[in-house]
Amino acid sequence: MDISVIFKLAAIGIVITIVCQLLKRSDRDDISTVVSIVGLVIALSVAVTMIGDLFTTIQTIFGVY
Q: Is the overall model pTM greater than 0.85, yes or no?
């Protein structure tokens, strides 16, 4: 695992938080909810990719096919 992935997830979280706060202050709560869900999906897709890589590495180390 590389440290850049952690920074990437943190950056996604910060950007989504700022956008949601801006939308809530402009009385766009419905769009803010959609943006937060999209941010969650993006972060989860990055995490699932990392978990897939982890399982591939474990299979390679232990020789499990």
A: no
- Pick from 35, 30, 44, 45: nearest CA to 15: 35
Displacement of CA 42 from its chain's centroid (Å): 5
Is the distance from CB of 24 to CB of 33 less than 8 angstroms?
no
Number of domains observed in the structure of the chain: 1
Helix axes 3-25, 29-62, angle to 10 degrees: 170
| Residue pair 39/13 in contact by the 8 Å Cβ criterion | yes
Residue 2 DSSP label: -
Residue span of the structural domain in which 25 resides:
3-62
Q: What is the pLDDT of residues 32-55, one digit of tens each?
A: 999 999 999 999 999 999 899 999
